[in-house]
Amino acid sequence: MPDKNFEPRHLETLDRDLDRLSRLETASSFITRPLAAPAVAAVFILLTGLLAAVLVEGTSSTLVIVLAATIGAYMAVNIGANDVANNMGPAVGANVLTMGGAITIAIIFESAGALIAGGDVVSTVAKGIVSPASAESPEVFVKVMMAALFSAALWVNIATWIGAPVSTTHSVVGGVMGAGIAAAGFGAVNWPTISAIAASWVISPVLGGLIAAAFLWLIKARIIYQADKIAAARVWVPVLVGIMAGAFTAYLALKGLKKLIRIDFLSALGVGLVVGIAVWLILIPVIRRRARGLENRNKSLKTLFAIPLIVSAAFLSFAHGANDVANAVGPLAAIVSASTTGEFTSSIAIPLWVMLIGAFGISFGLFLFGPKLIRMVGNEITKLNPMRAFCVALSAAVTVIVASGLGLPVSSTHIAVGGIFGVGFFREWYAERRLRLARQDIPDLPAYSPNERRQRKLVRRAHAMTIAAAWVVTVPAAAILSGLLFLAIRLATG
């Protein structure tokens, strides 16, 4: 029976209260969502510090190692947030992998690379950037490495925030250089090595872009613009995948498996050649079966490149985990060694628990913060499809091998992003070329206005400028941060 005391105004009041509550919940959700990822990352970093405290309990350097472990975890999270996007971005941008699939593959293969093939030996001064003799004592050396690691992590964090993929290895190099200069002056720095790193700012993206563009030209000329695309694909896709398999085999032999087996450049090429030929022969009947019944159009070609692109992304992640993770946690390993044994003038092995920090930190960083950079790399520089993304992935492996043979310093981050720019600029050039040829056949074809030409640009110039500026600034910015941090640490500790 209805309540006689209940009036319509009570219902209006209830609606208003419920509406306020709903708005409050929406606002609360909007505010807390951006804070969830940093909160989870902070918990991981704190747990890492507790783990380090348990592992080194009872030593005189427990506090130093715990602090270094937390900074190392912070660095690993930032690697996952930034560097891994270069491997997974093209596959996501080409719609071959979902964001969840890309993150899952990256976590598995980055961790596997770090734990299986990473961290055999790391120079205690980050690959010879600063002379070991410049450190007066283990205590000074620890302060240098602490400042270098923290400054590198801060810089990669800033770069992720502004949406610029940068090299974590270059960040560590800049950090070690800056702290070394603050500790012992400019004479402590190995300037030829710094010059080689500066050269890689140009060499890596240009070489990666040219090789990616060359493969895209091959695909366009031999497959896409053929009268019978499917027949052409049956011939050329096994060849291209064979090249990819051979290149990645040599790439992993040179860069990713140093802990398991030592192999020289010519031997790596030989193994890669054998694997490439074997994969080519195996794939000939496979591609024929997959191509059976496909329509003669570009959309059909995408299905033939999808699986090779996924495999290439996994291989890139494995190699990245084996190499870049060790470089990033190298300063942490150096701090542990110098603090516990006093040894800091020779190469040291990275302890398993330090590599675990790197592997798990990358996984957390990628899961929590990686999608932003993955979307930027995959979608916002230029439009990618499976063929173009395949060219980018293939160029990464081939460029490293070519650069290794020529003795040129390169960065995997710069190669991958340079490959994307190379593909985009090649598409612009190719479109202009086709237009010029069309005008020769149809002289009365109307010309594009300046505004129409701007709209037809296939590469976003703003991203190109932001990324290039971040690359150039990385070493000096990390060096300045590190130098200031070293001076602050020395002032605080005496």
Automatic annotation (TrEMBL):
<dbReference type="GO" id="GO:0035435">
    <property type="term" value="P:phosphate ion transmembrane transport"/>
</dbReference>
<dbReference type="Pfam" id="PF01384">
    <property type="entry name" value="PHO4"/>
</dbReference>
<keyword id="KW-1133">Transmembrane helix</keyword>
<keyword id="KW-0472">Membrane</keyword>
<dbReference type="InterPro" id="IPR001204">
    <property type="entry name" value="Phos_transporter"/>
</dbReference>
<keyword id="KW-0813">Transport</keyword>
<dbReference type="GO" id="GO:0016020">
    <property type="term" value="C:membrane"/>
</dbReference>
<keyword id="KW-0592">Phosphate transport</keyword>
<dbReference type="GO" id="GO:0005315">
    <property type="term" value="F:phosphate transmembrane transporter activity"/>
</dbReference>
<keyword id="KW-0812">Transmembrane</keyword>
<protein>
    <recommendedName>
        <fullName>Phosphate transporter</fullName>
    </recommendedName>
</protein>
<comment type="similarity">
    <text>Belongs to the inorganic phosphate transporter (PiT) (TC 2.A.20) family.</text>
</comment>
